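Lab channel / #folding
Pinned by the channel admin:
"Please post every new chain as: sequence first, then the structure tokens as a reply. Keep commentary short and put observations after the output so the thread stays searchable."

First post following the new format, from NK:
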Amino acid sequence: MQVPTNQPPVLPEALAAHNQQFPPLESLTRPTVPTEQAAYYLDRKPQTMRAWACLDNGAIRPLRINGRLAWPVKEIKKVLGVGA
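Reply from TO:
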């Protein structure tokens, strides 16, 4: 017996579109990525990444460029064990 939920079912097309929002980490050539992209690669919420930036005790320390956070791709790859 399934319990009804208030959320609509996730369609495969919507899931595929979400997964294609950012390029694969291995293919990145940029030195940094914005918060939303870094959160995607690290499987965290963007707000968690912002908290790490405020507390300066997260797994990765971002750069601050004109008031915006820039997350080093090299460090993301290092944390995830992806070839740098």
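NK: The first helix runs from residue 12 to 19.
TO: also worth noting, The mean pLDDT is 83.
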